From TrEMBL:
EC number: 3.5.1.19
GO biological process: pyridine nucleotide biosynthetic process
Pathway noted in the entry: Cofactor biosynthesis; nicotinate biosynthesis; nicotinate from nicotinamide: step 1/1
Molecular function GO terms recorded: metal ion binding; nicotinamidase activity
Family membership noted in the UniProt record: Belongs to the isochorismatase family.
Protein name per UniProt: nicotinamidase
Coiled coil: none
InterPro entries linked to this entry: Isochorismatase-like_dom, Isochorismatase-like_sf, Isochorismatase_Nicotinamidase
Top EC class of this enzyme: hydrolase
Length: 218
């Protein structure tokens, strides 16, 4: 079984929301996310889902990145992905939430600002259920894309690889965008060193799957 994960493919992380956390080209990945999902029997959605009461909020970009002193929200961020806002929405061209097979909403509590899709907390003690669900479905290949490469995508990939399961994790670079070139390069190295397989686009993933006799429901 193959699963495809759309990590935080939300408008908040694109130029469509310039006052939130825009990532250059973040609004251009829907087609590649859909292309990678075409190889999968299961599709997962993750979304940042924040509250105006979040304790990690700061008023301006100049104040971002400061330590919060909170165990599960390490730094300050401007408001983004507020539930019900335009930025909270998925990118145009992606399925509606109810069309996904499994959904993870991250950071719903004022105390939390996780990055990866597998745990609600930075200490990775409180599971979102994603690892367990993938395992219960017999998933052997996980294809990952989303926003941003150097934060939530990287953390999700590493969490999947560290789960101790017998699945392969494939990263679709064309379905991702990064905040900065240097942190993207570092993130790609870290994921590859941890065991992720990196591909330039969904078509290359398709070639790999066919060459290895892997299909969506095998």
């Amino acid at each position: 079984m193959i699963a495809a994960i759309d990590v935080d493919a939300q408008k908040t992380f694109t130029p469509l929301c310039p006052d939130e956390l825009p990532v250059a080209g973040g609004d251009e990945i829907a087609d590649e996310l859909n292309a990678q999902a075409a190889f999968a029997g299961l599709r997962v959605m993750t979304k940042d889902a924040h509250t105006p009461a979040a304790k990690w909020l700061c008023a301006s970009r100049a104040e971002m990145g400061q330590p919060t002193g909170l165990p599960d929200a390490d730094r300050t961020w401007v408001a983004h992905a507020m539930v019900g806002s335009y930025g909270f929405e998925l990118l145009d061209g992606l399925p509606a939430e109810h069309e996904y097979d499994f959904c993870v909403w991250k950071g719903t509590s004022p105390e939390l600002h996780p990055y990866g899709a597998c745990f609600h907390d930075l200490r990775e003690r409180r599971s979102t259920g994603l690892i367990e669900w993938l395992d219960s479905k017999g998933v052997r290949v996980v294809i990952v894309g989303g926003l941003a490469t150097d934060y939530c995508v990287k953390t999700t990939v590493l969490q999947l690889l560290n789960a101790g399961k017998a699945w392969q994790v494939l990263l679709n670079r064309a379905a991702c965008r990064a905040i900065a070139a240097d942190t993207e390069a570092a993130a790609l190295r870290e994921m590859a060193q941890a065991g992720a397989l990196l591909f330039d686009h969904a078509a290359a993933i398709g070639d790999y799957l066919r060459a290895n006799g892997i299909n969506s429901r095998a």
